């Protein structure tokens, strides 16, 4: 094998060269999967905490139930902001030209 062919194979096999700028193949965004998992966890934790907090508030309204309600509202706010961020990222990805 000649030296130039060996160097070419080494360059192609090196990490980080498979997604050069202008490449026609698009890799999925690295954080999109994690964003989806985090959004699911935020929404499911809030939806499971709401009925229990309402049941506890029927017995009495104290500092614990108030803090639970605040945590639920912050979780829903975080989910909404994460959903908006994902929509914006998807829009930017769909309008990007790969050619």
* Secondary-structure content class: mainly alpha
Distance between the amino and carboxyl termini? 34 Å
Mean pLDDT: 76
User: In what range is the share of β-strand residues?
Assistant: under 5%
What ranges have pLDDT less than 50 throughout 5 or more consecutive residues? 5-14
Radius of gyration from the alpha-carbon trace, in angstroms: 24 Å
Number of domains: 1
Q: Helix amount, in percent?
A: over 70%
**Main sheet characteristics:** none
Report the count of strand segments.
Answer: 0
Q: Which sequence of SSEs, written as H and E, runs from N to C?
A: HHH
What sort of overall outline do the alpha carbons produce when their principal axes are compared?
A: rod-shaped
Number of helices: 3
In terms of quaternary structure, what is this? single chain
Subunit structure: Homodimer and heterodimers.
Region (Disordered): 1-30
Transmembrane segments: 68-91
Organism: Chenopodium quinoa
């Amino acid at each position: 094998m000649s030296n130039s062919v060996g160097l070419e194979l080494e360059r192609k096999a090196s990490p980080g060269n498979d997604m050069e700028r202008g490449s026609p193949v698009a890799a999925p965004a690295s954080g999109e999967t994690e964003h989806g998992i985090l959004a699911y966890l935020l929404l499911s934790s809030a939806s499971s905490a709401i009925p229990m907090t309402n049941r506890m508030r029927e017995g009495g309204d104290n500092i614990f139930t108030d803090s639970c309600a605040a945590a639920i509202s912050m979780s829903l706010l975080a989910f909404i902001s994460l959903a908006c961020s994902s929509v914006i990222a998807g829009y930017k990805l769909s309008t990007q030209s790969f050619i």
